[in-house]
Amino acid sequence: MTSPPSVTLGISGYRAVIEADRFVPDSFQLVVDGTPQSHVNVGDPSQLHFEYIQRIGHVIDELGTPGSPVTAIHLGAGAFTLPRYIDATRPGSRQQVLELETDLVPFVREHLPLPKRANIKVRYGDARESLGKLPAGLFGTADIVVVDIFGGSRTPAHVTSQEFYRLAASLLAPQGIMAINIADGPGLAFARGQAATVASVLPHVAAMAEAQVLKGRRFGNVVLVASGEPLPLDYIPRLLAGGPHPAQAVHGKALAEFIRSAPIVTDQTAVPSPPPNRSVFLAK
Length: 284
Description:
Blueprint: E1 6-8, E2 15-20, E3 27-32, E4 35-41, H1 51-61, E5 71-75, H2 81-89, E6 94-99, H3 104-111, E7 120-124, H4 127-131, E8 142-147, H5 162-169, E9 172-184, H6 189-199, E10 204-210, H7 211-214, E11 220-227, H8 235-241, E12 247-251, H9 253-258, H10 279-282
Parallel strand pairs: 5-6, 5-8, 6-7, 8-9
Antiparallel strand pairs: 1-2, 2-3, 3-4, 9-11, 10-11, 10-12
Helix pairs in contact: 1-2
């Protein structure tokens, strides 16, 4: 049996592997340091697999006029799941991807090629440092900024602070949306702190997750959706209705209760996200 393609990433030293999905035709999974980071259906990039990615996809679907081009900035490349999704569902979109690992992008492009027509520009470097080097014309123009930054299975501390989110928020157009993927375990101390921190920068925030995760009963992903402008009243129910189920959201007064007493994270107090138990991935 032929081994799946792999590469040792030069910056982190992690091993990245592209594994075929045995159950979904034309689909593959990128695994970094034993952690599933991306799932791509190369035959139909509009099909999203991971639960949290589907939720961010629903957020993208609600931007402006359905199918119209958007300006998107992705912090973290993975296997380009969401850039591919935007290209497939909103042709003509302008996209920027920031990625630390210089070996990862050519590896993914070799084995999971991007559509030739896609307007996706890749910039290498630390996400926080790279934000300050983006063209001045991009600031204040992004319809969507996706923050999905992981070193292996954990989000580095320096991209979890109020200072970082202020910089990322400066990219947003007046009604632009920031979508943030947060991994946390029982109690959700990290997620609550991140929600409080984001809310200190962008006042309109909602948190969405699978019901048991949002109740703090098991490890999983929480998606924060944040904007400087109010989210439409029917926005959250539509996002939840798109699945996966069962799903819950907190916003408004419920969000205020969710983050009550959670500290705002600064550069001085920031810590990485908690490590998951490996059984989280082995059970899937």
